[in-house]
Amino acid sequence: MINYTEKIPNNVDLGRDRVLQRALEHWQPAYMSWWYDMGPNESHNYDVYLRTAVSVEPDGWAQFDYVKMPEYRWGIFLQPRDEKRLVNFGIHKGQPAWQEVPGEYRSILRRIIVTQGDTEPASVEQQKMLGMSCPSLYDLRNIFQVNVEEGRHLWAMVYLLHRYFGRDGREEAEALLARRSGDTDNPRILGAFNEPTPDWLAFYMFTFFTDRDGKFQLCALAESGFDPLSRTCRFMLTEEAHHMFVGETGVARIIQRTCEVMKENNVEDPSDVRALGVIDLQTIQRYLNFHYSVTLDLYGSDVSSNAANYFTSGLKGRFRETKLDDDHVLGEAEYPVSEVIGDKIVTKKVPALTALNERLRDDYIDEIADGVGRWQRVIDNAGVSFRLTLPRKSFHREIGNFAGRFISPEGEVLTQEAWKKHEIQWLPSAKDYAYVQSLMSGRVTEPGKFANWIAPPVRGINNQPLDFEYVRFN
Ligand code: BYC
């Protein structure tokens, strides 16, 4: 029997909610067995310098201390309730926000929550082996922080399923622990979460690109008229920022190290760069192309009646919905969407309601472009002449209007044959992966030491020095 208030920090009155307690009593042991099985490899006895949320107050959501990950306090936190909050868009605009699930939207709401929840354990599974090849204790601690928080985000969605969806919610919560990333019989729901994350460059790209999809989707769900979903997502967003920081600075540090080595040795050719044990910028560009395009698919089809329904029914809003200056109903509005006609990409206007996936994807692309610009500055400041570019959004897509088309990073519509000829210039090849992994064959565990292929960060975590013992192996 678990002592809930002590073991599970929460602000949902768990101590007095017997139904929720009973549901969690069954689920919590299954979750722990999933963590032992699918959580970071060989990590269960490590003491890790982690940030734990113990309350939603400013001084409570970031407590740092050594924790063994299986003993991490997976809490259940919702942003405090605003009694005056309304449904702010769609046909129910102006009604008080819902505190219980509206009967007519039960199944679509459950589906949104399950899709969101499914990504959280998936990413932990994808990253399971990376601790074995970490470039430093600092980086090892960061991946573990990301992993426990993804675990907690799964708890957040499971809380909603248990508390608001009765028996089918409990069944969905179990299924979340049964699917496996990349499994042919029982895969995770969304494409990108079945791709392997085989090395640390892929991990940083994933946290930069794919965790940022997490941010945008959570922002859209934070606008939901279903208040418990909105409040849950708002709190999750406070943690998401660190994940994107890990990704952005991780890639920036790899770029910085590569540029330093290129300048010191006066080399530019990728094979000369590789001979010096760092990752050539061309390979970094190919990883970028892959993670960007796979993540763009996570926004769904460009034109989607599902997305229109989510919005019209008040369940999923737009990015910063309440800050947008329009009628929040979108009865008449239009939005540009592109498709391939013949050998051209043509843009046309469609009802904005049906283009909400595309709109969220475009909001995301703006933010991504800024981040890539910051990576470019690292290259420019080092005095290396190389341009990192974002491919067109039509490149290498499997969902939406561009699925099944063969389009170059510059947006040229090609034949399959022509496209295939260039594939190894555009996307990481087996050889690229083999090279990157050859750099990451063992782990660097001496405090303050960093692998040759990555620069140290500017500062440590929570003002600790870089040679702090972020992980103790025992
Ligand atoms: N892969 O009408 P459409 C995160 C399916 S990441 C496979 O366009 P809709 C995190 C779709 O399900 C954020 N299938 O779809 C990051 C539908 O299936 P059915 C996760 C896909 O519903 C890092 C069919 O295609 N959160 O948090 O408008 C680490 C028709 O498509 C994919 C969410 O995604 C795909 N990529 O849009 C940890 C928010 N895309 O009906 C965590 C919740 C579409 O034919 N999810 N399909 O069986 C949603 O809002 C929507 O489900 C989507 C899809 C935006 C994903």
Task: Provide the fold topology.
Layout: H1 4-7, H2 18-38, E1 47-52, E2 63-68, H3 106-126, H4 137-164, H5 166-178, H6 200-222, H7 227-265, H8 270-275, H9 281-296, H10 305-312, E3 334-341, E4 344-351, H11 356-381, H12 416-426, H13 430-439, E5 471-472
The structure holds benzoyl coenzyme A.
How would you describe the overall organization of this protein?
By secondary structure, the chain is mainly α. The chain has 13 helices and five strands. It has helices at 4-7, 18-38, 106-126, 137-164, 166-178, 200-222, 227-265, 270-275, 281-296, 305-312, 356-381, 416-426, 430-439, and strands spanning 47-52, 63-68, 334-341, 344-351, 471-472. The strands form two sheets. Strands 2-1-5 form a three-stranded antiparallel beta sheet. The protein has a two-stranded antiparallel sheet with strand order 3-4. A hairpin with a 2-residue loop joins strand 3 and strand 4. The two termini are 29 Å apart. The structure holds benzoyl coenzyme A. Benzoyl coenzyme A is lined by residues 112, 115-116, 119-120, 123, 150, 190-191, 210-211, 213-214, 217, 297-301, 304, 306-307, 316, 357, 399.
